[in-house]
Fold:
Amino acid sequence: MYESDRAAEIYDLLYQDRKDYAGEAARVTELIRERKPDAATLLDVACGTGIHLAAFAKHFDEVAGLELSESMAARASRRLSGVPLHHGDMRTFELGRQFDSVVCMFSSIGYLATVDDLRHAVRAMSRHLATGGVLAVEPWYFPDTFIPNYVSTHALKSGDQGQGIARVAHSTLEGDTTRMEIHYLFCDTETGIQHRSEVDRLTLFSRAAYTQAFQDSGLETEYVDTGKGSPGFFLGVRK
Structure:
C-alpha cells in the first residue's frame, strides 16, 4: 500500500479534493483542548503525506509525525520543512519523548490486523503522552456500522497541463475485516492513461475492543460521535 511515489501522489491529489483536512484538524484540536487547555505539542501517528499534520501545525507550537510508508513520509517531508518526521510502526515505536497530545487520524488504526495489534499500538501511543495528555484515535467503522458491498467513486481533474484521476472502490465483509478493492485510472498529457489497483483490509474492531485497549493503557476513556457519517473518535487522557 502506497509503496511508490506515484501511489502517494495519487493519494494526495484524491483526498485533498474530497477531505476537509483543515476542518478535521480544527475539530480534533478542540477535543484535545477541552481536556487539556494548555496542550502545545502534538504527535501525528500514521501521518501519511502530512496534510493533517500541516493543519495541526497551525494550532500547536510544536508538531511531529510518525509514518511507516517511506514514500508517504518522503512526500510529508517535502511538505513540512523543519518538522520532525519519524519512520516507524505504530505498534512498537519509541521516540524517547512525550507530547501533550497524540493523534491517529483517517482510520489508520483499522489497518492493524488483530486486537493484540490494537492493544500494542494504543500502549505505544499512550507511552508518548505527558501526564494529562490526550490521545485521539479515529477508528475504522464498527461491525454494526459497516455497510457490506458499499461502492465508492471519485474523479477529478487537476494540473495546468491536465491530470485526471478516477477511483472506484468496492467493500465486502470477510469475517471481522473489510476487504476494500480499489482501482485507479490516472491520466496526464505525457504518459497517457495508466491503471493500478490494490486491496486494502481494515479490521472492524468493536467499540469494546477500543475501549479496553485504552483502559489497559491507563487512559481515562470516552468515545465522541462526531456525526456526518464520521466514525467518531476515541479519546483517552493519561492519568
Helices lie at 5-18, 21-35, 51-56, 70-79, 115-127, 207-216. DSSP finds six helices and eleven strands in the chain. The chain has a mean pLDDT of 94.
